[in-house]
Amino acid sequence: MSTQPPEKLEQKPADSPDASETSSVEHLTPGSFTMKVLNGISIAVVVSLVPQALLGELAKALLPYWDGAATVLTLTGLAASLLPVMIGILVAIEFTLTPIQTAAVGIASFCGSGVATTNPDGGFLLKGTGLVINSGLTAAMAVGLLLLIGGRLKNYSILLLSTIVTLVVGTIGWVVTYPIVKIFTVWLGGLVNGATTLQPIVMGVVLAVLFAVMIVSPVSTVGIATAIFMEGVASGTANLGVVAASFTLLAAGWRANGFATSILHVLGSPKVQMANMLSKPVTFLPVICTAAIVGGVGGAFGISGTPISAGFGISGLMGPLAALNYEGWGWTTSNVLIILFVYVALPLALGLLFSWLFEKVLRLTKSEYYALNFE
């Protein structure tokens, strides 16, 4: 999940003939355009999926004992199904579009997501979160079209803008790109999940390391996991990679950051270290070593999860709860002890070990490299 602040686009003077344009196309590069789209997707994923990730697994566990858990599941499920709309809106906000333009992008993103299917009896059926990749792609196309239109519609914007964007970009997203993206994402998700089933230890190592690196990069781990429908052991070991990064960064920067800031890596997100680690790549070494071992052990135990839990780590107990509630597991004493071992004891012990090794023995890192200052 990316935490970079949105880059403000240069505004035209209010008395300019094109004052309604929110930005100039020439100020955008392919890289900055892509980054804004990714930032919007990342924020949308967190906003829409965190309620379900925080409460969904807990509500499932409480469902046999509390009727209100069904309401929790319904409401958090609705929030998750609104992800495509949130993607469109938050991508538009990254480009500082007007309210009308922002709403149009939200509609287009929803149309291209596939989250809604027509009901033969009338109306629509909402299911899941849709295709995250195609939602983001449709939102990007909608923004591109709006930047090209600019202020040319003038006073007719409120009448024509949403219609043009819905019919043009919505149609492309729904009819053209959705079938292609769906085939690709299902294939990629099946490849990752299938390979992990065949080689849980090897793929556990690979996925844990990948997600440990991605969690401290601009890439959204949650977005990737939900986009390719990671589940089962693939999701569980990817989730353990995020956990490994959390505990290792807690240990590595303990002396420089103190208790309150260090615990943020576990209770919040390791992504707060992104600037430090990208500026000093050597800081990845203890994280990668911890993630490789934890991921391999998780694969051996068959730690599993859902597409939503994969990228969140231990924050909100999402990973552990998803693992315990997964089919074939359950809240037995032995399972709880396994979860405590792989989610807390092992990553913390390895984080301390590799932090000490790379700092005191190999002298490649320093605690100061991980120092955070929020003032």
TrEMBL record:
<feature type="transmembrane region" description="Helical">
    <location>
        <begin position="242"/>
        <end position="264"/>
    </location>
</feature>
<keyword id="KW-1133">Transmembrane helix</keyword>
<keyword id="KW-0472">Membrane</keyword>
<feature type="transmembrane region" description="Helical">
    <location>
        <begin position="131"/>
        <end position="151"/>
    </location>
</feature>
<feature type="transmembrane region" description="Helical">
    <location>
        <begin position="284"/>
        <end position="303"/>
    </location>
</feature>
<protein>
    <submittedName>
        <fullName>PTS sugar transporter subunit IIC</fullName>
    </submittedName>
</protein>
<dbReference type="Pfam" id="PF13303">
    <property type="entry name" value="PTS_EIIC_2"/>
</dbReference>
<feature type="transmembrane region" description="Helical">
    <location>
        <begin position="37"/>
        <end position="56"/>
    </location>
</feature>
<keyword id="KW-0813">Transport</keyword>
<feature type="domain" description="Phosphotransferase system EIIC">
    <location>
        <begin position="35"/>
        <end position="371"/>
    </location>
</feature>
<feature type="region of interest" description="Disordered">
    <location>
        <begin position="1"/>
        <end position="25"/>
    </location>
</feature>
<feature type="transmembrane region" description="Helical">
    <location>
        <begin position="335"/>
        <end position="358"/>
    </location>
</feature>
<feature type="transmembrane region" description="Helical">
    <location>
        <begin position="158"/>
        <end position="181"/>
    </location>
</feature>
<keyword id="KW-1003">Cell membrane</keyword>
<feature type="transmembrane region" description="Helical">
    <location>
        <begin position="310"/>
        <end position="329"/>
    </location>
</feature>
<keyword id="KW-0812">Transmembrane</keyword>
<feature type="transmembrane region" description="Helical">
    <location>
        <begin position="68"/>
        <end position="93"/>
    </location>
</feature>
<feature type="transmembrane region" description="Helical">
    <location>
        <begin position="201"/>
        <end position="230"/>
    </location>
</feature>
<dbReference type="InterPro" id="IPR003352">
    <property type="entry name" value="PTS_EIIC"/>
</dbReference>
<keyword id="KW-0762">Sugar transport</keyword>
